[in-house]
């Protein structure tokens, strides 16, 4: 004859009872329902807790308007001294492992942040290509400067022509100024240089320039 299937109430009762044994601390009905995360409805949780308390499997005590439930300590297995010491040693080992893991995690996080700050291979390749292009262009400019072929022949002719024209204008205006100034100072009672100083005029000689050198 096949075994009877557990009813929903029996299953709910087992879930609630095993949970109280596992956590082994005082809980109210809402705490139990929330901990089971919907495995048992809140209505059934309250019914099961009331039933388990009535049967003596758990203990229920009323505090104000709510009932606090906990596992009957007679149903809780008390470990032997050797088992307790073994569990304590295991807890110490796990505590050390957690501390070591946290330290290692901090190191890895630091390395990860450092790697994130570094350029990627495509970015480095792109930068290398850019620098190679810049280096090539700079090399070409240096070769051009070293060869003296900085400007075209037409540009040279144009610059030389403009230069000669400017020197010619300079000479003409210099001579024109001298003629006018000599005419003004012909009957001037003072020294011509003093008049130039008063007017704030500097001659080529004052600034050490000789037009014949141009």
From TrEMBL:
Keyword line: Coiled coil, DNA recombination, Meiosis, Nucleus
Gene3D superfamilies in the cross-refs: Winged helix-like DNA-binding domain superfamily/Winged helix DNA-binding domain
Main location: nucleus
Record-level GO cellular component terms: condensed nuclear chromosome; DNA recombinase auxiliary factor complex
Transmembrane segments: none
Listed InterPro entries: Hop2_WH_dom, LZ3wCH, WH-like_DNA-bd_sf
A Pfam family assignment: WHD_TBPIP
Gene Ontology MF term list: double-stranded DNA binding; recombinase activator activity
Domain Homologous-pairing protein 2 winged helix: 14-72
Locations listed in the record: Nucleus
BP-aspect Gene Ontology terms: homologous chromosome pairing at meiosis; meiotic joint molecule formation; meiotic strand invasion involved in reciprocal meiotic recombination
Domain Leucine zipper with capping helix, residue spans: 154-208
UniProt record similarity statement: Belongs to the HOP2 family.
Protein name (database record): Homologous-pairing protein 2 homolog
Annotated organism of origin: Smittium culicis
């Amino acid at each position: 004859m096949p075994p009877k299937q557990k009813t929903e109430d029996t299953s709910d009762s087992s879930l609630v009872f095993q949970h109280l044994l596992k956590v082994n601390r005082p809980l109210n009905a809402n705490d139990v329902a929330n901990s089971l995360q919907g495995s048992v409805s809140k209505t059934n949780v309250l019914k099961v807790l009331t039933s388990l308390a009535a049967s003596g499997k758990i203990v229920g005590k009323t505090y104000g308007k709510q009932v606090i439930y906990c596992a009957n300590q007679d149903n809780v297995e008390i470990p032997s001294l050797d088992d307790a010491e073994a569990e304590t040693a295991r807890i110490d080992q796990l505590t050390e492992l957690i501390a070591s893991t946290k330290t290692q995690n901090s190191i890895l996080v630091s390395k990860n942040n450092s790697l994130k700050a570094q350029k990627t291979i495509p970015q480095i390749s792109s930068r290398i290509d850019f620098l190679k292009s810049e280096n090539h262009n700079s090399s070409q400019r240096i070769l051009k400067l070293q060869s003296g072929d900085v400007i075209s022949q037409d540009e040279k002719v144009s610059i030389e022509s403009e230069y000669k024209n400017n020197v010619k204008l300079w000479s003409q205006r210099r001579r024109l100024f001298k003629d006018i100034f000599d005419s003004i100072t012909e009957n001037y009672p003072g020294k011509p240089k003093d008049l130039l100083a008063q007017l704030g005029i500097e001659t080529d000689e004052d600034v050490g320039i000789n037009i014949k050198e141009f």
